Amino acid sequence: MNSVSVKDICGLTEGSLLYNEAVMSRETAESLMVNSVIIDSRQGAENTLFVPFIGERHDAHDFIADVYRLGTRVCFTSRKRMEAGTDEMVYICVEDTLEALQKLGTAFRKKYCGKVIGITGSVGKTTTKEMVALAMSDKAKVLKTFGNRNGQIGVPLMMLELDNSYDVAVIEMGMSLPGEMEKLAQIALPDMAVMTNIGVAHIGQLGSQENILKEKLNICSCFTKEGGVLLVNGEDEWLNRVEEYLPEGNKIKVVRFGLSKESDYYAANVQGLERQTEFVFRGKEGEDEVKVSLSALGMHNVIDAVSALAVAKEAGKDVALAVKQLETYEPMASRGRLEQVGGLMLIDDTYNASPDSMRSGLDTVERLKTSGRKIVVLADILELGEMSEACHREVGAYAAKKNIDCLITIGTEARYIAEQALYVLQEAGRRITTDEGDGNLQKNGIQVLTCESREEALAEGLSGLQTGDVIYLKGSHGMRLDLLAQQLREQYANM
User: Fold this and answer.
1) Angle CA(276)–CA(277)–CA(283) in degrees, nearest 5?
2) Which of 326, 350, 372 is the last residue before a domain boundary?
3) I need a labelling partner for 490 at 20 to 30 A (CA). Which of 148, 163, 179, 291 fits?
């Protein structure tokens, strides 16, 4: 973050100054410099601006004295008073501290002269962000969203990191409520946008996939009058209708990416190898045909990679050089990375989940070659509202058609996955053997186990793992399957 004075911050946020006149002059207060913004009171330090938010359970204004003791001397406040024991603190009084942070972030964005690429979608945002950043990085300095800075707080914090030493900024933009994406677009002002898919994440808050599409399309709401470039997943049924939802007379260029020749950019000759995926990147009519070797498994990663190369092409990059950068990609922790754990292969895909991503994960496991069993562990998909049962049953029906050896579910909602898988298998005319004593249901070598907890799954279904087994873990972050993954690492490291 470029240094900025208290006086300038006041001007950019329409704040008023509050300070101890017995300790310092107004000139001294206004001249204090800030080179970092913090929202965690434990990170207090010199030259930082503390932004206290009022949450459901805590009011961070109560921690202003704590950051003061750590060296922070500037903070926003909506209380419009000095806190006890902070005589040398300079307060910038605002109506709403979040709104003030967003105004500050917007001001920094408007001073930035480089290209901003916004990434949104129901799933796959982070992977796509990472791949786009790599594809754009040849002879360019790229800023990309780090951590979970993709929302109403995170995006303005990322804007504060912008300066003109960066050629490109790749910004992940997430939302869960109506109106949020438009606000993010006003802050980030993207020149290009990528939409990965329209799934059912947050459908409980937004009501329907159509509403999710309309909300996410607001990422384009601040494109310039000359228009911008919107890249969409051509494999997504909702995104294939995106033109129907764009404002009349818009000048937005819609570009499709995917697996089909109908898309503007697509993957051909996809081959899934043991630890990587190979494909040929093509534009329409065979232009820019380049072979790609990706250190990631699954068709969803192929689509994300195509989107990254499509962005690079539309931004005027040399595609061959973009491919070289992209081929350095390594899956992030808990996002589908294949690990060798003793004699096992563990796929830790526990960061989050949706019905679409679970189906993609099942596809990935089915394609893997292994000397042992293919064991899939699926936990609850959260925030599905009234559609929860139906969505989980869809996953179960899909799982029943996959070539796997064992399906383990964890949680009350994931039980519907097991129930539907068993129903589909039964309808196919195959015999079901049930052992009610231990809760195991077996079907021609396929085992289905329903568990209430991670501990039960570890004790029952994952207790007798053998060399060569593949274990795939997937569930919403709130189900904490990452802890189960760590337990497996510890238990089987020396197999």
Assistant:
1) 150
2) 326
3) 148
